[in-house]
Amino acid sequence: MTPMRLTAAATLLALAVAACGGTTKSSVTSAPAPAPASSSAAAEADPNAPLKEGLKLAFLPKQINNPYETIVDNAGIEAAKEYKGEAKEVGPSDASASSQISYINTLTQQGHDAILIAANDANAVCGPLQQARAKGIKVVSYDSDAAPECRDLFINQASSEEVGRSQVRLLADLIGKKGEIAILSATANATNQNTWITYMKDELTKPDYKDMKLVKVAYGDDDDQKSFTETQGLLQAYPNLKGIISPTTVGVSAAARYISGSKYKGKVVLTGLGTPNQMRQFVKDGTVEKFALWNPKDLGYLASYAAAALVSGQITGAQGETFKAGKLGERTIGAKGEVILGPPFTFEAANIDQFDF
Ligand code: RAM
After folding, report:
1. How much is the pLDDT for 26?
2. What is the pLDDT of residue 22?
3. 18-24+36-157+295-341: what fold?
4. Which of 34, 53, 69, 264 is spaced 20 to 30 A from 287 at the CA atom?
5. Where is coiled-coil annotated (predicted)?
6. pLDDT confidence of residue 41
7. Quick check: 116 and 76 in contact, CB under 8 A?
């Protein structure tokens, strides 16, 4: 799959109302049998089972006031309409490790068919998610994984290894593979950022990058103001800093805002993972040359269909099973219950105006 596939999908700008061909009569009134701890021991999948109508899904993002999470969840909620289900978003206003627990408990009591979660901490949410599964609720993590034994599926936006390594390659090219660099991350517990950072550090051990030195990993907690202040702190503490990678849409936009109004503009290179709409002005004013992401709408859409396929019995979460994800076509479950959306895509002045998210 080439990055251009993302271009094609993203330029659709609005979610197409896909045809709900060949769906179903059955509706869900009672919860399915309790989920086993391991998906491999689950009931057999029936790939031809129709998607059930009337499914109740809930999206639980890292935090509700993060524009990225809003795009993902709204797309998942829209997708549910295509298969005649109902979905909603609830969640905390901060991305701290324990902030999602009370929401999981409430959703469990309310008796949803599936909970979709971008986990703020892989383990803190585990007990509550297991309680939900014991009641027959399917659990799908997306964006940021929960511990694999606590969910049925993980919908990953891109290969974690590819995200981590490509972020280093992006910055290396922009600074001529030389100098001190720093990372401005989200929270210290975030599963997705921590996995990406592990691959970034590994990439940096390659001989090609021997003249690049990672001096600090700072945490802006996916809080705009804290990310802004942490950027300022990094630049003051490391006067020889040549580049910053911020693999979070909240972090990279706050860092860009700080740098654009500072003496570091044009001197310190910033890249990371951002949404085109948040980064556009900083690409236009020359603060940022290149950054990456995938299509967050497609992530929410895929997660929504995956949850519906699980609840409908088309899949159980086992490796090798396949399901149809509406307009995104057939998808296959990989190792450890992971489904990958596609490769990251690089945005720059020449293409950024083709995107609206
Ligand atoms: C932020 C969040 C999210 C991450 C994106 C790239 O919005 O940390 O989890 O996937 O950035």
Report:
1. 30
2. 28
3. Rossmann fold (3.40.50)
4. 69
5. none
6. 43
7. yes
**What's the gap in Å between 125 CA and the centre of ligand 1?**
18
* Homologous superfamily, domain 160-293: Response regulator (3.40.50.2300)
Cα separations in angstroms, 252 against 171, 227, 245: 13, 8, 8
Mutate to test the pocket of ligand 1, among 69, 117, 294 (most ligand atoms within 8 A of CB): 69
Rounded Cα gap, residues 4 and 8, in angstroms? 6
- Residue whose Cα lies nearest atom 5 of ligand 1: it is 248
184-203 residues labelled b (16+ CB within 10 A) or e (exposed) = bbbbebbbbbbbbbebbeeb
Domain positions in the chain: 18-24+36-157+295-341, 160-293
Q: Which residues line ligand 1 (CB under 6 A)?
A: 62, 66, 68, 118, 143-144, 186, 190, 192, 222, 248-250, 273
The two tokens of residue 256 are 């860009």
- Residues paired with 116 in a beta bridge: 59, 140
Res 155: pLDDT:
98
Q: Is 328 exposed, middle or buried (0-12, 13-18, 19+ CB in 10 A)?
A: middle
What separation in Å is there between the alpha carbon of 263 and the centre of ligand 1? Answer: 28
Low-confidence ranges of the chain (pLDDT < 70): 1-43
pLDDT of residue 44: 87
Provide the pLDDT for residue 15: 31
- pLDDT tens digits, residue range 51-96? 999 999 999 999 999 999 999 999 999 999 999 999 999 999 999 9
> Per the structure block, which two tokens stand in for 198?
């592990």
Q: State the distance from the centre of ligand 1 to the C-alpha of 175, rounded, in angstroms.
A: 24
pTM as predicted: 0.89
